[in-house]
Amino acid sequence: MTLARIKYAKGNEIKYISHLDFQRSFHRLLNRAGIDVAFSQGFNPHLKVSYAMAMPVGMTSEGEYLDVELVAPMDGEKLKALLNEQSPKGLEILAVKILEEPVKSLASVITEGILKVEVPVEDHVTENKIREVIREILKKDTLELTRKNKKGKLVTKNIRSYIKKLELDRISSNKAHLDMVLSMGSIDNLNPQLLLDYIIREYKIFKEFPKAKIHRVDMLVDGNEIDLK
Predict the structure, then answer these.
(1) Where would I find the DUF2344 domain in this sequence (predicted)?
(2) 3-class SS of residue 104
(3) What is the DSSP string of 33-92?
(4) I need a labelling partner for 178 at 20 to 30 A (CA). Which of 19, 31, 131, 172 fits?
(5) Contact 51, 129 (CB under 8 A)
(6) Closest CA to 142 of 158, 164, 154, 127
(7) Between 3.30.70, 1.10.760, 1.20.120, 3.40.710, what CATH number should domain 112-225 receive?
(8) Using one digit for the tens of pLDDT, what is the confidence trace for 46-83?
(9) What is the reported pTM?
(10) Structurally, what CATH architecture does the domain formed by 2-108 represent?
């Protein structure tokens, strides 16, 4: 088995494409680039491509990952160049590592996401007020959010432990620039927009519209970067 572990960036041009549509687009990219990808067995064979995490529509990122199973070994730099030659605007392949030994799937090992968020501030709100709210949130033992699960039932969860980092970097042009590290993965997962919605609803320091700009900087495995060297 030869696996290509790929890190890529998604820009503004493709941030409103759904995860399913992005998958289809990437499969076409592999075909245009002439990459010989392995297929699954069975009645409905499909390309053996697996994604670390689906990215919410509207977000940009410089830290997305996927695995592609290749039919034969291939140089990582050559694969990167071939894909970038055919990539649409807004998609850039940043790094490729060829793995010859079996590894756990990305989806099963990702635990956190690093994020930068730009959100409009209510006119009356000061920098000190935002820092005060953040301190109050981080002091909480319980922070409950209610949302629908995959079966459509309302479920309440204490998501305080999902917030690993929440800091105000600065205020510029009446927008707060926040740094976050949130739980992200197959076990615990917190959409940053849900956290922003909670802050808007409970503390009224940020504006609901225009929507916040959310950018994923990277994904982590137990606090560590994914090794692509």
Answers:
(1) 5-192
(2) coil
(3) TT--B-B--SSS--B-EEES-PPPTT-EEEEEEEEEEESS---HHHHHHHHHHHPPTTEE
(4) 19
(5) no
(6) 158
(7) 3.30.70
(8) 999 999 999 999 999 999 999 999 999 999 999 999 99
(9) 0.94
(10) 2-Layer Sandwich (3.30)
